[in-house]
Amino acid sequence: MNTLFRYPVFYQQQNGYLILSAPDLHITIVTDIPFTSKNNTKDLLKLARVIGRMEIKIQEKITTIKKSKIKLPTPSKIKSVISDKKNQKLTAPQVALIMGRSANTIRRMADRGELPGFKSPKGTRYFYEKDILPYLKLSTI
Predict the structure, then answer these.
(1) 139 band by pLDDT with thresholds 50, 70 and 90
(2) The pTM is what?
(3) Which residues contact 96 (CB under 8 A, 6 or more apart)?
C-alpha cells in the first residue's frame, strides 16, 4: 500500500483562500486560487499544481520521519477529523496539531491574547475551531 494516500487531506475555502491540510503530518498549504464552480482553465491548472505540491510535501515529510527512525503517525479516521459541529471545541494539543505548533506555544499565544480561547472551570483551555482558522500557519504557493 502506498503510504502517501493513507493520510487524509482536507480542503476548504476561508476568507478568499483555498486551504489544503494534512493534519496528521502537520502540513498546511494556503493559496489564493478562486474556488468557484466557474473556474477557468488557468485556475484549474494552478489548483492541480497545488494538489501536486501537497502530495510532494506529504512524501517529503514521510521520508524525513522514516529517516529519523521515528514511527509514522497513525492515519486519522475521517470521522474523527471531520465534525458537523460548527462550534467544535478543541483542546490546546488539538489546535497544536492543526497549526503545526506545540501545545505549549498555543497556550502561550492564548495567554498573550494572540489566539482566542477560554478556560473551563477545571482549567482546561479550549478553542473554537472556527476561531482558529484565520490563525493557521500560512505556507503560500
Answers:
(1) very low
(2) 0.51
(3) 102, 103, 105, 106
